[in-house]
Amino acid sequence: MDRADAFLFAIILSLLKCLFIPAYYSTDMEVHRNWMAITYNLPLNQWYRDETSQWTLDYPPLFAWFELFLAKIAATIDPDIVMLQREAVLKFTAIAFQRISVIISDIIYIYAAYQISNTCVETSTNKESKRSSVVKQHTMFLLFILNSGLILIDHIHFQYNGFLFGILLISLNHMMKNNILQSAVWFSILLNFKHIFLYMAPAYFIYILRNYCLSNSQKPGSSHRLTSFIQNLCKVGGVVVSVFAVSWGPFIYTGQLYNVLERLFPFKRGLSHAYWAPNFWALYNAGDRILIAIYKRYQWPITLTTNNITGSLTGGLVQEHHHIILPIITPRITIFLTLIFMLPCLLMILRQPQRSSKGNFLKCVIYCSFTAYMFGWHVHEKAILMVIVPLTLFIYETSSFHFSWLFFMLSTVGTYSLFPLILTPFEIAIKGLILLSYSLFSYYSLFNIYQSTRCYIQWFMNCMEVIYLLGLIPIFIYTELLHYVLLPSENFEFLPLLLTSVYCSIGISWLWMKLSWNCFGYDLFIYFKKKRV
């Protein structure tokens, strides 16, 4: 794809995004406006202490500087935009400025998508015709920039995720070109913009350790192994520490380190977010509710973890859930489970040099993100984008129907799981059409590129998955249209959220297991089979 085509797509897409300026927006609009006000009106040592509004600053330092940059511009347009006050500022100028700032910042994402799509063609080892390569390149680029989840979250719900994923793609692009130090720098910058990308850090750490720090120190006959290892480790450590020093230095100097860390890692919040992210803990929470209902019906002779049975079962909107029957989950348990499930994939890359290819690095990045999403503490539903966006790369990197189908399934279910974040009736048709259009485009494009497998087991599994996808239609009709007619009582206000979360968590959990099998499960099966022989 040449630059002129990419530029044309970027212009058209940006104009279409402008249509969402007057659309529904969440409280995140006021959150980010308040962060602009904090950084503009207060000295640096008050940024992570201020509690004028309930929307306190809880992103890493580089994002705070980004908000200050936006605030300087906003103040010249309308000083009211950066007013520091408890009440929200709902002026059209504030809304329009923030909407347009997201659209402009998306240029980074579009540029990164263009670059990495070209890199996939340049570095591919697959023997393909030029036409086939161009088709895949165009498909990947369009699937990146038209990502339905990003459009819903950034341009309707409102957040700044696009340019952050742009930085991630720049980092992955450098890694695919074997520019490991540059990749480490960009990933460090990304962590200092949004710390949720720590989900991917184990994959980066192990791959860089194996392919950069240990690459020269393990050559046969080398007499300077230790020296080479230390030199490489110091280079990587130096660039990473430099980025963190620039970002965190001013806050450490002013004695704000504890305040920043306390805001970034709020373990006092509950296991699940207000709307349960559709992961393992959503099923766990739902299981606890089912057991509560059975307990109330049959009065089981068991010891309860709390006596607040009624509040947990009928508490209206799904808020922080306190387990009644099942054991209470602590942050330590979630960290332990996350690391345990990440370990096999990380060890295979570390211990087997042939598995340290760029394709396997991408698998490890996606698997680590997916595992952290499935078992992490207080996971936000929007974190599913950290799996969907990099999974787009598998269209080219693996040349596999299985991974393309996995992408299609996860992008559809994962995006649907974001629907409860857009609340107003006017956007029901909009979000449905955005997802349907993207899913149809994905299906048509990917199945033109790849031919399905003839394996009957795989065929049966795909049929079951299609049936599951079709099940989203009645879920959508009920939760978006019928529920408030059939059950208008506030006692059942939580039911649409619960249905969406649990149904999506079933599909997403299945897809996590499929990814686990494709990343390392099959190889472990073959390994142990050979050991037995």
Task: Walk me through the structure.
With 533 residues, this protein is mainly alpha-helical. Helix content is 68%, strand content 0%. The protein has 22 helices and no strands. Helix 9 (201-213) runs antiparallel to helix 15. It is globular. The termini are far apart. The model is unreliable at 310-319 (pLDDT under 50).
Features:
533 residues, mainly alpha, 68% helix, 0% strand
Strands, helices and their partners?
Layout: H1 3-18, H2 28-41, H3 61-77, H4 92-123, H5 130-145, H6 148-158, H7 162-176, H8 180-191, H9 201-213, H10 225-253, H11 257-264, H12 280-298, H13 309-313, H14 331-351, H15 358-375, H16 385-391, H17 394-397, H18 401-416, H19 428-449, H20 456-470, H21 472-486, H22 495-532
Number of strands: 0
Chain-averaged pLDDT: 86
Strand share of the residues? under 5%
Q: Which parts are unreliable, with pLDDT below 50 for 5 consecutive residues or more?
A: 310-319
Helix-strand string: HHHHHHHHHHHHHHHHHHHHHH
In which range does the helix fraction lie? 55-70%
Given the C-alpha coordinates, what overall shape results? globular
Structural class: mainly alpha
Quick structural gist:
Helices cover 68% and strands 0% of the residues. It is an all-alpha fold.
